[in-house]
Amino acid sequence: MNKDVLARLKGNKALSELAPTEYISTGCYALNRVITGKYDQGIPVGGIMQLRGNSSTGKTLFATTFLTSAQKAGWYCKMLDAENTFSPSFGSMLGIDAETLLYSTPRTLEEAFGDVQETIKQIREHDKDTPILFVIDSVAVLPTAEELQRDSVSDISNTDGARRAVVFGSLLRKINTMLRNNRATLLVINQIRSKINVMYGNPETTAAGGKALEFYLSTDLHTTSNKTSDVIKDGKKPTGIVGRVQSKKNKLGIPYLECEFKVEFDKGLDPYYGLEEWLATDGLIDISASGRRSVGDISFKKNHLSEVLLDPTKKNAELDKIRDMFSVKL
Known about the structure:
Elements: H1 3-9, H2 13-18, E1 23-24, H3 29-36, E2 43-44, E3 47-53, H4 59-72, E4 76-81, H5 88-93, E5 102-104, H6 109-124, E6 132-137, H7 145-148, H8 160-181, E7 184-194, E8 204-206, H9 212-216, E9 217-224, E10 231-234, E11 237-250, E12 258-264, E13 268-269, H10 275-281, E14 286-287, E15 293-295, E16 298-300, H11 305-309, H12 317-325
Helix pairs in contact: 6-8
């Protein structure tokens, strides 16, 4: 090797140039902390993220909140609604700008990934830099083109799952590099199914087919919620759900971290819910052995931090520091 080659190999410049340099908030400060270790950074530019869980655990509400944050940051956003369930009026209630949200209803896996690829090409012809966020809701319901072309719904084969996995893996290989090179992020929503006859261990498995997706993910978020006890009600009217979200895989920070979340049906993710444990971990508030919460000389109940932050009558140096962190203006 000559001196010029050796000089280029010194240090970590090439690696640092590939690392994500731009993030937006997920809309939930605790979830940002779980993903990246920082309260103001959650979704990176480039790469693939997965949001999975059982039905009614807030997956689409999470994704809608992510889209809202991306729109506010000036990103291009596209919803690929494979389930045909997205409501523009409901999305607007959560903060989505329906006028600027790109939308499509792909019928197959090939069509969905082809749509992502073509949209990137069309945008980059006119805008080389602005990030793009895609959401596929959900890959679990998308058949392959070969499955869709069959004459009968009952025309199935024992090898369908294997063929679907091959197609999915091939599509991921093609799209992965394109996303990074074009400053685009893909959020994939997936469903959880149960394996048959599993007596020991975890029976859960994703429904997308194969394990290829797991290897391409930068972050794998798993939402859980008890559908009976975790429903928030105003009288008899359900207004939202609470639960937990865990990063099962994370290349942006420490994996297997988790936080509580609250999703309200008319507002999306609560930005302050689940923060208390993380603020205590970072030494910004105190939680006693009995569960008592306090910031300086101000005490509050569990999951009531936002009431203290937004109350102008509550003041001390410690609380003001937290307000400054989250840009709370009174």
